[in-house]
Amino acid sequence: xxxxxxxxxYFFRHWESGESTIExxxxxxxxxxxxxxxxxxxxxxxxxxxxxxxxxDGFSDKRELLTAADRVRKQFMGNAVHLRGIIExxxxxxxxxxxxxxxxxxxxxxxYRIEEDEIISTASESVALGYRTVVLQSGEDSFYExxxxxxxxxxxxxxxxxxxxxxxxERSAEEYRLxxxxxxxxxxxKHETADPALYxxxxxxxxxxxxxxxxxRLREADFQVGSGCMxxxxxxxxxxxxxxxxxxxxxxVEMAGIGPFIPHPRTPLxxxxxxxxxxxxxxxxxxxxxxxxxxxxxxxxxxxxxPSAHRKALQAGGNVVMPVITPQRYRNLYEIYPHSTTxxxxxxxxxxxxxxxxxxxxxxxxxxGPGHSPKPPFGRMRVVRVKMEG
Length: 390
What we know:
The chain has about 400 residues and is of the alpha/beta class. It is built from 16 helices and nine strands. It has a single domain, classed as TIM Barrel (Alpha-Beta Barrel).
């Protein structure tokens, strides 16, 4: 509760400067909105002031923004939607992030680790259902030493046509290099918020500087890098959200996961209000305009607060969906936040068919390939090189 009060004071202290910035040039920006959107569609650049205005209540034509993002998505990424199946293989976590249900201090949570053979069999079943990427996600669990993860990656890469994304938190440069050499294609490490002070409040045993350092380590290790942020965190300002987008632009990420903050009842932020679909869609649309060749998922968090949110996100610049394919008996135990029920069922085939119907209803198709980044460094020659090194 103390953190929540501190966050509220932090919010109002910083909001004053943001509000004055918007008032200062709000009228000019309103007059220039069509020019701003036209310019960003051509150059993929926005100033921090422009981003703040487009996120603010002073900008009322949200539909124009979302339509512009959808046009850019179609131009650069086409109509195919990529499926990434998430396997949540461990809910142990040594961190104490104040918003996360997996935090070490949550003693009420039953912990699990999925056996290696079950991870492989789950991935194999997903390939048969048409998934071309699996995402191995866990809490920060040092039980999984670097060699153990590398061995699992090698087994997964033996499955036909499968891309592998890891999301295992902050590790050393050596570990990242080992996993890349083992064949992992991508790594997802969300920065959560680009406001260092807010980051420290939310992550008492971590620092924003180290998070950023890890993201650059991943880039140096030749991963396709994914990052992203939460929208609607207590204490978050429009300036902080603008910085989130500018950091993603600076990193030139291959994937950006942007989802609403959802309070978990067994965390210090359990009574805080959730983020909104509207602001999340604005952030997603702006990410598409700034990063035209990035993969942008309709996140599972969005589906938690709005059953139709996957459809909305796919119409606001999104081109990826990430269904949870974790075996059913573990699924309710991986509770970063209360789970979505959108297209989720005991039978993984149901989830695949359900999401396929959502995609088809928009006149879109399910992608057949692994969905590597279209940017030149991650094309065909890169895939060949990985196979030769293996």
